[in-house]
């Protein structure tokens, strides 16, 4: 049973990495690693990606806690 949760956590981690890389690719980065100073709101696909990142990260942490409890 704990192998199922381990595999689910692995799949979730890969999915989380992909979502984060898609978000970072769309941002402007200067030479020191920071983004621009102008504020803008997330709209459309950017907002969906942001909310999906939060949901997947909560699932990832939950699976990690379940794996720790089962071990």
TrEMBL record:
Parts of the chain that traverse the membrane: 6-24, 48-70
GO BP term, example: protein secretion
Protein name in UniProt: Protein-export membrane protein SecG
One Pfam entry name: SecG
Compartments (UniProt record): Membrane
NCBIfam families in alphabetical order: secG
Family: Belongs to the SecG family.
InterPro entries: SecG
Entry keywords, A to Z: Membrane, Protein transport, Translocation, Transmembrane, Transmembrane helix, Transport
Location (main, coarse): membrane
One Gene Ontology cellular component annotation held by this UniProt entry: membrane
Record GO terms (molecular function): protein-transporting ATPase activity
Membrane topology: Multi-pass membrane protein
Source organism (scientific name): marine metagenome
